[in-house]
Design brief:
The complex is a heterodimer of chains A (about 625) and B (about 375). Chain A is about 40% helix and about 20% strand. Chain A is of the alpha+beta class. Chain A has 3 domains: about 45 residues; about 180 residues, Penicillin-binding protein 2a (Domain 2) (Alpha-Beta Complex), CATH 3.90.1310.10; about 375 residues, 3-Layer(aba) Sandwich (Beta-lactamase). In chain A, the strands form 7 sheets. In chain A, strands 2, 3, 4, 5, 10, 18 and 19 form a 7-stranded mixed beta sheet that branches. In chain A, strands 12-11-23-22-21 form a 5-stranded antiparallel beta sheet. The two termini of chain B are about 35 Å apart. At the A-B interface, helix 1 and helix 2 of A face helix 7, helix 10, helix 11, helix 12 and helix 13 of B.
């Protein structure tokens, strides 16, 4: 019994010992498995994981370049970068957004406007892109947040340079503005180059010269932790700052042109015919571009967008108006160049013109007619019948082709974004767009700059400058030169030019003298703007807003203001040595001679008479050839 | 001298009759030495993994002190007393588990803690000891190997608390408790045929287990199968810990120089994923040394089991030692990407007090078993 029990106990002990040894075997097997795995990870795959580990901690951060400044011809600053602090939220890093904003509101005022802008930008953002909740923090607010910042993961004070436009509304239509890059712009830009940039040119010169103003992005190789906090910089490739841009624009003249238009809707474009430089470009009413930089509030935007005066609409390059009688000198030149007429031959004006075999009367603006007029008299008095007849003789094809050489119906290519081409009708255009044949009557209407013929103020100014230059067309430009910040010399921007051939170069002088008589002649339609200081060559124009019926007559007094005719005037001066070409349109302003002419005169006075003064104050920025 | 390793000087064949000083106060010198070296190394790693915050190390040191104290205290208890208490401790543990579940129902959510006023206590930890004790008590009633009835009873005693813990839900602990019961059965000589049968049954039950899992638990399994499928979500832990270990190479990046851990890429680096910090900073060499240390402790435990006096002592010592190994294997397997992510700490090194106290209490029992042998 005792023997058995002892034997049993020995057997049990042996059993447990064997099991313990088996277990030891399993333990060794398990440890072996782990070691095999470690051999794989730490020896075979070591290189691979080393790279991954380095990738983990080393991040390439873009460093955005500073946007180039914009100066006017006198070196006055038109667009600058102003340091500003904003409070930004990275939504992906914040657990409870509402609570965080509520806590922040205890530190600094957060208005409804701020919240609305935040909500709007939040929808437009990319993943992990910070969204500002407060802009323009005061130093006190920055300090107050800095003390408590540990409580706000995902919230940062962001210092950035904010574009400001010191001349505000005065230069809004010239410069455009910059704003935060939106989804659609993201698709068209070089994402690498814009990796660190929040702003992009949205219109005007800012958009047209975006490449030059933006510069090249720089990079920083930094060591970061898992939460993206930068611990140290390993390598630094500084950004190439955007180039400063010098414009032909003369702020004093821009101011004078704005004042000349006053509170009337319209546009003024002034070009230096010698180099194509845009001296002034005004579209009234205007707006404050500074509102747009940080994202305009919906209320402000709606107010601008839905105003009947359309302040956001750049009339100077996007306004397409019937050029009216301002095209008559060009058509007359076309008549000479194509050999259709000579300048001395007279045409009888009974007050209307009818095509042979048709009863429809195309009326002259003077109901009683001008009697027999030659080319000069026709231009000076703006006789419609003379030009009906001339257009009819030239035919639409020659008329179209000649006017096209002056740039009508095509964008001038001025460096302001958003320019529209106007419309120079042709037989081909009508068949293509309207699916109708060309009617001879339409040719007559084109002859006096009406019908479907549309031109922009910049086109009219460019064509007038070409006339002043005896056919030397220079593409209108705002950008004169660019300079890499810190570089000793500026680099002149290229210009595009071409010369028109009209067969006999004396034709230019003929037409220019005719245009001078518009101002100087006893019967000239613009005789009231005659100056004793310099000679002006010009042409008035009236663009119909709505068509007067055959039996009706147009009466300005009884027509609602917005249906009244647009007043136009093109001019250049001095006649002998043109230094400025101007196109003016006053919407619903009535007659060109009485409304638009004086505006042009004021602009030319400011430039030609007042320019002495300006030149004395020249701050020495390079300008002129 | 240089040719003989340090353990050559240790007294491996201490006879129960010999009365050394340590033996008189019921301390097993090799086990104590192994544990001290391991814990010392652990503190060093913790200093690095815890962003060189001395306060973290101090708190861990206090816990270690308490745990060592408890170990020495338990070592004074004769195994015969432990055996008598087994069923009682088990009963108390199960009652507390049920209490936790009921409180959890009311509080809506995962509930593991029982607040006893003075200390917060995790009843599931108690079961890590109570289950092997009870199963050893049960199986030592009859001669080994156990018969079918004994096996079935042992299985029931094990699975009942396991289910309760899994419901908390705490997959890691329930796994450890289940393995404790099964490992005691294994040491007791469960026939190989039964072992294979049980393995097949477990395989058959796997789909059922899958159905019963919480979403986050399924996520972990799915992530284990394909960590790259969700690199920023559940796969992040595994990917980052493999990068940490792999980039450590053979010699490691050096103490305090692990970029993965110091730049905070490695999540839970001072708790469950501390093994990756060791891999990154000490490399393959350091890990081999660490695993050697663990092996030493485990083998000492198995030795204690093999030469214990009674069946209860043998089964309990073997069970506790093997659970310690399961801890090690599950944690290192998880961190190296061999096993799915289960919340099991690296024993005696991971930051945190609960598992450490339980483990040291277990080592206290091992010491008691080794040192309370009756004189011949």
């Amino acid at each position: 019994m005792l023997e058995d029990s002892l034997e049993d106990r020995r057997r049990e002990q042996r059993l447990v010992t064997v099991r313990a040894m088996v277990a030891a075997g399993f333990v060794l097997l398990g440890i072996g498995l782990i070691l095999m795995r470690l051999t794989h990870l730490q020896m075979k795959m070591h290189e691979h994981f080393s790279v991954l580990s380095k990738d983990n901690r080393v991040k390439i951060l873009p460093v955005s370049p500073t946007r180039g400044l914009i100066f006017d011809a006198q070196g006055a600053l038109l667009a600058e970068n102003h340091p500003s602090f904003s409070l930004e939220l990275t939504i992906e890093k914040i657990d409870d957004l509402d609570a965080t904003i509520a806590e922040l509101a205890k530190l600094m005022p957060i208005s409804e406007k701020d919240r609305a802008r935040f909500e709007r930008l939040k929808r437009q953002r990319m993943r992990f892109q910070a969204v500002p909740i407060r802009l323009n923090l005061t130093p006190t607010e920055v300090a107050r947040f800095a003390v408590d910042s540990y409580r706000f993961p995902g919230v940062d004070v962001h210092a950035e340079l904010i574009r400001t436009y010191p001349k505000a509304a005065l230069t809004a239509h010239v410069l455009g503005y910059v704003g935060r890059i939106n989804e659609s712009e993201l698709k068209s830009i070089d994402k690498g180059n814009y990796a660190g940039t929040n702003f992009i040119g949205k219109g005007g010169v800012e958009k047209a010269h975006e490449d030059l103003l933006h510069g090249r992005v720089g990079y920083q190789q930094v060591e970061v932790n898992a939460r993206g906090r930068i611990l140290r910089t390993l390598e630094n490739t500084p950004p190439e700052p955007g180039q400063d841009l010098y414009l032909y624009l003369d702020t004093a003249l821009q101011q004078a042109a704005t004042e000349a238009l006053g509170n009337r809707r319209g546009a003024v474009v002034a070009i230096d015919p010698r180099n194509g430089g845009v001296l002034a470009l005004v579209s009234q009413p205007s707006f404050d571009p500074n509102l747009f930089v940080e994202g305009i509030s919906q209320t402000d935007y709606d107010a601008l967008l839905y105003s009947p005066d359309k302040p956001l609409y750049n009339r100077a390059v996007r306004g397409q108006y019937p050029p009216g009688s301002t095209v008559k000198p060009f058509i007359a030149l076309g008549g000479l160049a194509t050999g259709t007429i000579n300048s001395r031959k007279g045409t009888y004006c009974p007050g209307y013109f009818s095509l042979p075999g048709q009863s429809h009367r195309f009326r002259c603006w003077r109901r009683g007619g001008h009697g027999t007029v030659n080319m000069r008299e026709a231009i000076v008095q703006s006789c419609d019948v003379y030009f009906y007849s001339l257009a009819n003789q030239m035919g639409i094809d020659k008329l179209h082709d000649f006017l096209a050489t002056f740039g009508f119906g095509a964008r001038t290519g001025v460096d302001i974004s958003g320019e529209l081409p106007g419309l120079l009708p042709s037989r081909e255009w009508k068949e293509r767009v309207r699916k109708q044949p060309w009617y001879p009557g339409e040719t007559l209407i084109i002859g006096i700059g009406q019908g479907s013929f549309l031109a922009t103020p910049i086109q009219l100014a460019a064509a007038t400058a070409t006339m002043a230059n005896h056919g030397h067309f220079i593409q209108p430009r705002l950008g004169y030169a660019s300079r890499v910040p810190g570089a000793p010399t500026a680099h002149k921007l290229p210009t595009v030019s071409q010369t028109l051939d009209v067969g006999d170069s004396s034709y230019w002088q003929t037409i220019i003298e005719d245009m001078a008589q518009v101002v100087e002649g006893a019967r000239g339609t613009a005789k009231r703007i005659r100056s004793k200081d310099y000679r002006i060559a010009g042409k008035t124009g009236t663009a119909q807003v709505f068509t007067v019926g055959q039996k009706e007559s147009y009466n300005a007094a009884t027509t609602p203001e917005r249906m009244r005719d647009h007043a136009l005037f093109v001019a250049f001066a001095p006649v002998e040595d043109p230094r400025i070409a101007v196109a003016v349109i006053v919407e619903n302003g009535g007659h060109g001679g009485s409304t638009a002419g004086p505006v042009a005169r004021q602009v030319m006075d400011a430039y030609l008479v007042g320019s002495k003064l300006v030149q004395d104050q020249d701050q020495g920025e390079p300008h002129g050839d | 001298m240089a040719t003989s390793p340090f353990w050559a000087d240790l007294d491996w064949n201490v006879r129960p009759t010999e009365q050394g000083l340590l033996r008189r106060i019921h301390i097993d010198a090799p086990l104590l030495l192994g544990l001290l070296v391991l814990c010392g190394f652990g503190l060093m790693v913790l200093y690095s993994a815890g962003d060189q915050n001395l306060a973290t190390v101090e708190r861990q040191l206090v816990r270690l002190g308490i745990a060592f104290g408890l170990m020495l205290l338990i070592a004074q208890i004769p195994p015969t007393t432990l055996r008598r208490w087994s069923l009682g401790i088990y009963g108390v543990g199960v009652v507390m588990l049920i209490a936790v579940l009921i409180i959890g129902e009311i509080g809506k959510g995962a509930q593991r803690w029982l607040d006893l006023g003075v200390v917060r206590f995790q009843p599931s930890e108690l079961l890590k000891l109570a289950v092997p004790m009870t199963v050893a008590w049960l199986l030592s009633q009859r001669p080994l190997p156990p018969r079918l009835l004994g096996i079935l009873l042992a299985m029931m005693l094990t699975l009942f608390p396991v289910v309760l813990i899994a419901k908390q839900p705490d997959l890691g602990t329930s796994l450890l408790v289940a393995s404790a019961g099964i490992l005691v059965l294994f040491i007791a000589g469960l026939s190989w045929r039964m072992i294979i049968g049980l393995a097949i049954a477990a395989g058959a039950l796997a789909p059922l287990l899958w159905m019963g899992m919480h979403d986050y638990q399924r996520d972990r399994v799915m992530t284990f199968l394909n960590p790259e499928s969700d690199p920023l979500g559940t796969g992040y832990h595994i990917i980052q810990s493999q990068i940490a270990i792999g980039s450590g190479g053979i010699s490691g990046k050096g103490w305090l120089n692990g970029t993965q851990s110091h730049l905070e890429f490695l999540p839970e680096r001072h708790t469950d994923f501390i093994f990756a910090v060791i891999g990154e900073e000490f490399g393959f060499t350091g890990i081999v040394a660490l695993l050697g240390l663990y092996l030493f402790i485990i083998f000492r435990g198995l030795m204690i089991a093999a030469r214990a006096e009674s069946n209860y002592d043998r089964l309990l010592a073997g069970g506790l030692t093997l659970v310690f190994f399961v801890y090690l294997f599950v944690n290192t397997g998880m961190v190296t990407g061999l096993l799915p992510v289960v919340g099991v700490p690296l024993p005696l090194i991971s930051y945190g007090g609960t598992s450490m106290v339980t483990l040291m209490a277990g080592f206290g029992m091992l010491m008691a078993i080794e040192t309370h042998k009756s004189k011949k």
